[in-house]
Amino acid sequence: MPETDDNALLNELRNKIVLEAAYNFVGGFSPGWNESPWYKGDKEYDYILGAKIDAHLSLDLPISKSLRVHTAFYFSLPDDPVFSIKEFYFDYSFRDIVFVKGGLYEINWGISRFYPFTNLPALVPANRDNWGDSYIIKMSVPRGIGGFDFIMMTRGGFMDNKTAPLLEEFAYGMKYNLALEFLDLDAGILYYRDLPIRLFVSLKTTLWGIELYSEGLAAFSFDSGFSFRASGNIGFLRDFFKNKLTLYAELYYNGESNVAWWRPKTELLEESQVDLYEGFNAALAFIVRPGVLGMRIFGQALYTYKEQSVWLVPGVSIKPGNITVSLSVPMALGKRTDTGDRTNYYRNNTDQRNRPFSVLLGIGYSGKKKYTF
């Protein structure tokens, strides 16, 4: 009987106390421009010089052979100068037939490396206007070479509500996995009162050394008559020269764009690197590993067809031991749009100050210690 990662971990740690500590320090310098550096008109130059340190401490505590409790604390300067709870949940096994996991943690249903549109749990909105922690209870039922996951989760900010919580404020979902020898299939559905009903299916296989995947998403709404939207992608990943070179690419179509009542309700969590854009979008990335000092030469390009905009991130990094030195040059190119709520990679990118042209130089030191009792 196959197990999910959570279920396997529960079995592995049944009689063990695990304490893990990790730390990370990074400092860097980032000059940037609000126009291209070669632009002849007026342009504003800006730079960021800063440092950040963060650490987390986690504890896995077995209460019994069937019950494990996990907690993780997070500390960061200058963002979170006080230790905060990052994760807190329990794992329970009912005779190795049903596995239950409940508490504060993240869940991911998507497989796309660029556009996480099938990660349905991330679509559950927050209370009021702020994202917050989401509390989830998941029941896993392995069956043969597959199994079911049933989830019930709150929207962010649920615990801040001063009135009595209502069952209609929960989101409900189900996902089925079938792990064949030549094909991995996932299918799921999520219901939340303020969202369209969404169903997804994803397929992943490996042929001739190429990892191929495809996802489809169907969304239904009955708010003002029946409405239906479909989205989908197709992508691949391939290693060359004994993993010295990795290429991966994806073509994605967003069928939920340009719908006034739909768009505000499809925002992803802030961790998502790429928002959902209108029409066809394409992404390409590569990683070169020369095998010297942990060097990685990388590049990523995200393209939105309808808005004629591209996001380029070439870079290089080395990692001698616990030290990482990286240099990258993010660039947002293409059609410029300043009107209305239309956004593209040129005016909406991952730089904190939204500068279309930047240079990022960073030096980091990280480590991890794990103790088992």
Summarize the structure.
This protein is mainly beta and 373 residues long. 2% of the residues lie in helices and 55% in strands. The protein has an 18-stranded antiparallel beta barrel.
Biggest β-sheet: count, sense, barrel? Answer: 18 strands, antiparallel, barrel
Summing up helix and strand content along with how strands pair, one would put the structural category as mainly beta
Helix content: under 10%
Total strand segments: 20
Low-confidence stretches: 260-276
Which strand-content bin applies to the residues?
Answer: over 45%
End-to-end distance, in Å? Answer: 28 Å
Summarize model confidence as the mean pLDDT: 81
The radius of gyration over CA amounts to: 22 Å
Oligomer: single chain
- Give the helices and strands as they follow along the chain: HEEEEEEEEEEEEEEEEEEEE
Please give the count of helices: 1
What general form does the structure show? globular
